[in-house]
Amino acid sequence: MQSTTTQPSPLLAATKTKRIPGEEGVWIFILGDISVFAVFFTYYLVQRGKHVELFDLAQATLNKNFGAVNTVFLLISSLFVVLAVRAMRAAERIAAQRLIVGAFFCGVAFIIVKTFEYSERIAAKQIPTTNGFYLLYFVLTGLHLFHLIIGLGVLTTLFFLARRTGLSKHQWAFFEGGACFWHMVDLLWLVLFPLIFLVR
Amino acid sequence: MTALLRTPATAVWVVLITATAVSWTLGTQHGTHDHKLASVIILLIAFIKVRLVGMYFMELREAPNVLRGLFEAYCLIVCTLLLGVFLFG
């Protein structure tokens, strides 16, 4: 791997001291966003509690393998992003770029699997208007998909940052904050998949 | 590249993949076993995974106590809430 002239940020080099990954604004957004999802998670289980049989029957129609494969894609992409941040700190910009591209393609793979999954449901006429389960299934997984698509835009920005030499303090913060946003997309799916596909 | 992999986050990633396999197995078992107990374990595993992603991937274990505390509180409160609603809701 090529070493470049990019200087590791002094902030990033000081891993022994406590510091905020990215910047405060990113964390207000992330904590706010995962809290909104916490309300949705709870609402899902409240509705399930009211219609246990309907939810269990409808859940059984979902293809759990699609959900599990997508979990693996997101976990691989998250590892790539962790390694990309480490590569940037070690001034290995080429490695960082490759890892970000890898993470991006895992995200694309997630969308492709999701398309198959949605097609199966729609072909079986299991759509949001069918019943409360499918409504929540489409709304929650759709909201997550929306976050993932924004995440692909964030990864694209990180890729171009990784091509630059001498990032400013603000650009380093964006790089770390963007990485945390992508981990949040992973984190939300780590709850959504078991909650909607497995818990019964 | 191998130097990049020498981080606790890599070991955490192996744990996350293994935990996913355990949850998937618990959630796809057929037969007469206790779904409710399996689901409680699946939810607990999910939030252990969330916490690991926060601590090691998002690097919150190196973050100021307030931020780390907010995230840990999130994991604990949301997990307890969901288990409560699932079991008694």
Could you walk me through the main structural features you see in this protein, from its secondary elements to its overall organization?
The complex is a heterodimer of chains A (about 200) and B (about 90). Chain A is an all-alpha fold and about 200 residues long. Helix content of chain A is about 80%, strand content about 0%. In chain A, helix 2 packs antiparallel against helix 6 and helix 6 packs antiparallel against helix 7. The longest helix of chain A has about 30 residues. Chain B is mainly α and about 90 residues long. At the A-B interface, helix 2, helix 4 and helix 7 of A face helix 1, helix 2, helix 3 and helix 4 of B.
**Any idea what the radius of gyration of chain B is?**
16 Å
Radius of gyration of chain A: 19 Å
Work out the largest interface and the residue count of each chain: A-B, 47 and 46 residues
Average predicted local confidence, pLDDT of chain A? 93
The major β-sheet of chain B equals:
none
Give the count of helical stretches of chain A: 7
Sheet having the most strands of chain A: none
Number of strands of chain A: 0
The percent range for helix content of chain B is over 70%
Series of secondary-structure elements of chain B, N-terminal to C-terminal = HHHH
Unreliable segments of chain A (pLDDT under 50, ≥5 consecutive)? 1-5
**What portion of the residues of chain B fall into strands of 2 or more residues?**
under 5%
Q: In total, how many beta strands of chain B?
A: 0
| Poorly predicted parts of chain B | none
* Overall average residue pLDDT of chain B: 94
